[in-house]
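Example record used in the benchmark description.
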Amino acid sequence: MKNLLRCNISIIHIPVILIMSSLVLSSCKFGWDDDFMIELGVCTHFNNAGMLAEHGYAYLEPSVGGLLMPDKSEEEFNEVLEQALQSGLPLKACNGFIPGRLKSVGPEAVHQEILEFAETAFRRGQQIGVRYIVFGSGGSRRVPDGFPKQEALRQFTDLCAAMAPVAAQYDIVVVLEPLNRNECNLINSLADGAAIVEAVNHPNFRLLADIYHMMMDDEGPDQILKYGHLIEHTHIAEKESRAAPGTHNEDFTPYFEALKKVGYRGMMSVESRWDDMETQAAAAIMALKTQLQNIR
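Model output (structure tokens):
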């Protein structure tokens, strides 16, 4: 397997790449039974696929701007598309969705422009095999000083309700990511995110649980138990310095136990700062695997 992953993927046909990806995927699921299973991936550029596959990761989560490039021409995207399809790992999700210049809320909100941007992202994501697009985008959804928060929530809910059926046309699920209060002033908890998801009430608009953001705002695993029925994707990093798992040996098991109790079956992307990705990626997957396999 290790030798296979070291092949020169630039000369391998796409069907072989898909076979290789499925082999990697089958070895990267951690869990105990059919009701709980975690696939581990990394938020990073697809250029890192070969190295991360060797360490045992199942998929990558690049940025929308770096992979799908909704503000670039079809010619520019097609060049990236060819490289992405040969990366050696599935590109199952994208983050960094709406740029800060496109405001979701406030007096300068540009919903129609955002929806056009989003549709291009969804269409191109479908071409690559992306399933989830993460709606964090703190700069876009930050509420301007003096603007009523309830009006901002109404604007944001309306935008998401309009976005969900567009995502459905391309078999994309948008997952709403609550961000800690240091990063954004709107939608800071699973409860906040769940209220939006329930108001939108569409199968292609769901909730993301980011364990780093939860820990930053002292949001306990009990919130996963409460809103687990809405969660369809997860992120993780250590609380200290947003480091990769295993750097400071932080304990995630209470959150993993909560995910198990709600029967979570899905992906978990490491979204962290890296000092040396190749070295830390190996330690991170070992730390996560150990904690996942040791929970009750």
